[in-house]
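Q: Structure tokens for this one, please.
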Amino acid sequence: MADSSPAPSAARGAFIVLEGMDRAGKTTQASLLRAKLAAQSSRPVELIKFPDRTTAIGTMIDAYLRSATDLDDRAIHLLFSANRWECAARIEAALAAGTTLVCDRYAFSGIAFSAAKPSLADAFEWCATPDTGLPAPDVTIFLDLSPETAAERGGYGRERYEREEVQRAVRAVFARIGGQQEADLPDAPDAMLGRARNWRVVDAGHSVEEVAAAVWANVHEAGLADGTQAPLGRLWAPS
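A: Here is the predicted structure, written as tokens:
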């Protein structure tokens, strides 16, 4: 006789991160995904964004990104990490309470934009280390876009990192984080420092609707449309 008892409800909210190149449409896609999840899930869904420019640390980062101030490359990297850490407890509490979080940028951007700088080109693991132990995403969806296409989009060039040569270097580091440059990586498990688990790539060069459909397909395939039973992981922690 078949078991007709209902499936157990998900233990917590899902932590879904959207990463990507500048002008890849992350903010738009994060908003669309939040709305889709809210419409199809019984649980609350919130949208968060990094850097969080509303905090004390965030205001310093905002000034730096607008080129209103200059900081040492290592100092600004640690500020970005501190900005995530000051929000970590809130992220954990929301997930535990059953809220699904859609996050626009996370620690992977911190690594990519810092390790792309000439001064930190050989410091990949150093760039990852400050975020060790942060809540790990259940899935990270990377919106890939060529620097040439990004430069054609409105608003490009307003902030410090929006230059084609910078974006090419950043894209290469993102590929390393996602495990797409296997030749550059030693044999190691997925939990190797600085390398992401459950990393999905979506071509952001298509229409908003096509990209949104691809993002949703990845979330659904990962089984995260209505939370998850899996325990919350930690960045760079062994499986």
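A few notes: The mean pLDDT is 87. The radius of gyration is 18 Å.
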